[in-house]
Amino acid sequence: MVALKSTILDNLDEEYYQITPEILASFPKFRPPLNIYRLKEDTAQILIHKKAGERVDKDEQETLAELCAQGNIFLARSDHGIYSKHISKQLDLVLQDEHLKEGEIAEIFSHALTDRIAEFLEQPVKPVFDKLYTDFMVLTEYLWTDLNRIKAFTRRMHAEHTLPNHSFNSGCMGLWLFTKVFPGGFNRRVYDKVTVALFLHDMGMSKIPPFIREKQKPLTQDERSKVNLHPLVGSKLALKLGLKYDEMQQCVMEHHERLDGSGYPSKLRELSPLGRICAVADSYCAMISKRPYAEAMEPKVAVTELKNRADKYEPKYVNFLHKAVFLNDW
Asked: Measured between alpha carbons, how far is residue 277 from residues 185, 217, 242, 260 in Å?
């Protein structure tokens, strides 16, 4: 795989990168969504082969496939925005494209997973979950190679609070914190389970009416009672989906529990390590996003507030977050 600078005089600063046959095959056969370039070997020039939306007949498809197999088909870096929208619909392509930068990959995952999570929360049934689960496994395949890659994701969390946005943010922050609390000592299977659990810890909220979730005024006692039941709703939903492992139940049931017993739904004082991680991630992500009833806090203010609640949140875990925020270690 190679990246080349243009040799065309009117576009010397353009950068191109070679694509694999798998990536080419993912494009619509008859009308590619972006410009496709080829390498003219005798002059070492990158020339446009097909313009975006231009029809490609069957003979041209075969020629294009042959050129791609030879390593002579390229995309322009300037078309990344179009390409990222395409690849977000087939996330496993990020594992094929060696020329995507770390930040670009995190951006693609951010948009794609948030959309998939939104679809699932809108319709939390097995067929929809199975598609989301496939994308989660692409995510863990990518992160498992280098667990520190999660840092790029924490820099691309959503500023506006919605249930899908919050789920994505908390999943990213939770995974980052998990790797700090447990720097090794877990296998890929555990990592897969933890990932799904952290991203879907709040799925019980999908059963809370939107007018309550998005209410700008204080909740009534009846509305608050409904909200406080969402961990139990999420637990039942997880079991219905076949997610019967401990990691899922810990995140779903414990993310609103507090060490002093003031949380809900069970007023627990003894929380699992993963439950404590999820509680910190969930609260921090809520605090730094703009909610219907509250403006977003600055990260330093939010993490300081968590640090001052050592009776409620695991101090050791908050300290990891505090250090990262104040040293900008993302």
From this structure: 16, 29, 23, 16
pLDDT for 235-249, tens place per residue?
999 999 999 999 999
Query: Per the domain annotation, does 113 fall within a domain?
Result: yes
Residue 4 belongs to what H/E stretch?
strand 3-5
Co-location of 81 and 122 in the same domain: no
Do residue 121 and residue 73 come from a single domain? Answer: no
What is the distance between the alpha carbons of residues 204 and 238, in angstroms, rounded to a whole number? 9
Gap between the Cα atoms of 320 and 307, Å rounded = 10
What confidence tier does 149 reach under pLDDT thresholds 50, 70, 90?
Answer: very high
Same domain (yes/no): 115, 74 = no
Short-list 197, 178, 211, 298, CA closest to 253: 197
Residue in 270, 268, 284, 274 with CA at minimum distance from that of residue 252? 274
Per-residue pLDDT tens over the stretch 293-316: 889 999 999 999 999 999 999 999
Q: Which token pair is 81?
A: 């925005």
Q: Are residues 69 and 115 in the same domain?
A: no
Tokens of 150: 């999660």
Q: Enumerate the β-bridge partners of residue 74.
A: 18, 37
- Domain final position from 87, 114, 132: 87
- Does residue 64 share a domain with residue 123? no
- Can the peptide bond before residue 265 be classed as cis, meaning omega within 30 degrees of 0? yes
Which of 35, 58, 87 is at the close of a domain? 87
Q: Which parts of the chain fold into alpha helices (H)?
A: 21-26, 58-69, 80-87, 102-122, 126-144, 150-154, 163-181, 188-199, 210-213, 221-228, 230-240, 246-254, 273-287, 299-307, 315-327
For 65, the domain range is 3-87
Pick from 267, 281, 265: which is nearest to 314 by CA?
Answer: 281
Report the predicted TM-score, pTM, of the whole model to 2 decimal places: 0.88
